[in-house]
Amino acid sequence: RPLSQQLTHTLFVSMRNFVCKMADDAELLMTLYDGKENRAFTESYVVRWSREGLAREIDQMHNLRVLFTDLGSRDLGRERVYLVCYVVRLGGMEVKEPDKDNKKHSRQSVSKPPPVIEVLRRPYGVAAMDITLFVAGKMETDEDKHHFLPFLPCEKDNLEGTLKRILANKELTQRDHKGQGLYCSFKMLHGDIKQVREENPHLVLGQVATARKMGFPEVILPDNVRNDLYLTLVNGEFSKGSKSTDKNVEVTVRVCSEKGQALQGVIMLGGGVQSQNEYRSVIYYHEDKPRWSETFKIAVPIEDFKGCHLRFTFKHRSSNETKDKNEKPFALSYVRLMQEDGTTLRDTQHDLLVYKVDHKKFDANDVGYLNLPSKRSELIEGSKPSHGGLILTNKDSFTIHTNVCSTKLTQNVDLLGLLNWTSQPDTLADSLNALMKVDGEEVVKFLQDVLDALFNILMQNSDSDVYDNMVFECLLYIIGLVSDRKYQHFQPVLDLYIQESFSATLAYNKLIVVLKHHVDNANSSEDKDLLLKTMKSLQYIMRFIVRSRILFSELYEGKGQQQFELSLKQLLQSIAVMMCYNTDATLLVQGACLKFLPSTIPDILQVFSSVQLSSLLMDLINKM
């Protein structure tokens, strides 16, 4: 089975019913939550639930199923995993009491929500259940068995605080949840989404929503192109201003271009619902220090990412609907998606500056604020930046957290230098040296792009050998990484790259020349560590050589075969000579050669006579 299927796991969840006394419609956001790290680690699955106790979306009626995908062995081994459902009320600021006639309504008809001028998102409660043993495979999961997730109302707490109350209480009693909660069934499935669909058609027939892990799967295949930014609204602090009580703050998030135009359909609340043009936060009543902890996905096309920024506007939402119509945003924050050095926004918490809006001078279409500092770390001490109706308010603060999952945009400036080498050819040598210091996690994430860049450097410098040695050393670094136990599950990804994506027809000659040079100098004072790495990487170096030669031969109808065979023969003869050396310094290298050379034979036989190869190998053995 492909490695992605062995290392990838999927949790199938079917929502059966939500029992709760509600006067308004609700939004149910289900996610997998790490109880030790206190954070969700998957996207949400979103269900719009009517106050009559039915799914509001036609597509979701009798089809409330989701696949939590991309789970790896590390996720299955988490200490505490919960299935959590946040319940957000959709209605006015105040709860409208349900009609007394409501009970007369047929349960089959979906009634209209209460008459509200604009639907606001208000905290209602949380349902949760510990599913650690099910996820870890220590308890059997069955799609026909219903589990009860007890529901706890928020009362005066925020959603995250309510969840913490549930997690702190090992067992919620009937007195706590009053019979209210979520009924679900779930089943642990093994394999990627393709395999899951093939092996479980009865579960995933038709449209089934997916909610991905907010991070990479353990194996990133070359065709897994992804460019997702997960944004968490963490918290804020806002002064009362002219009001006598604390504000009811709503944050609206838009993704805007450099010209201030909002990008359409790039905000995803979660699986199961359509993309949105903006995100509006939950509103906490009379709370000057709201703690939202709300996470959602932003999926901006790679080509638009560079010029975009996130714009946050803050608005007080009045309980009085007439007053609320006249409310305008009282403050604004922003942050660019790309940093000045061309890398993406870091995966960390960002303390954003809050600018107070003076509506007499403010023009909503003016993007001059992009020249103002956006983060607290950019602020010059003692300064009070302002622009056209916007002035910094030091009393207010706003914190977000970002997590970029991209196979195309990096947060590492050294890796970026290599990937963009054509725009800065003068610093190419520095970029190649820097690559060998880049963290392995980042390199394997961009494996295909890094290899493409290295072989393009060889191809575009075909008349020069200036960079050949450096590129060769970078290849040794990458092969060494995927041979390491920590990243060995990327070996099939490298195999797939060589077989399907690799296209450097001129690389074979350069690789043979560099490889032979290192072998010929085995007895000199040259770096023995480099030669040892070369021997350990023989299998993949030879694979690149053979694949390159096959591609060249297909393109030019076998041209240069004699010269190729001669250079390969000379390389193998050099290796045989190296095996004759009788010094302590070469002993490790010779041992590695004997261990790894046999693995190259199947590849060499694709392009070389078996009789000749046997003769050369016999010569090598006899010389020992």
UniProtKB/TrEMBL annotation:
UniProt-listed PROSITE patterns: C2_DOCK
Domain C2 DOCK-type: 226-405
A single GO cellular-component term on record: cytoplasm
Keywords on record: Cytoplasm
Lineage: superkingdom: Eukaryota
Predominant location category: cytoplasm
Locations listed in the record: Cytoplasm
Gene3D superfamilies: C2 domain (2.60.40.150)
Ranges in coiled-coil conformation: none
GO BP annotation list: cell migration; myoblast fusion; small GTPase-mediated signal transduction
Presence of keyword Nucleus: no
GO MF: guanyl-nucleotide exchange factor activity; small GTPase binding
Record family assignment: Belongs to the DOCK family.
Protein name per its UniProtKB record: C2 DOCK-type domain-containing protein
Biological source species: Homalodisca liturata
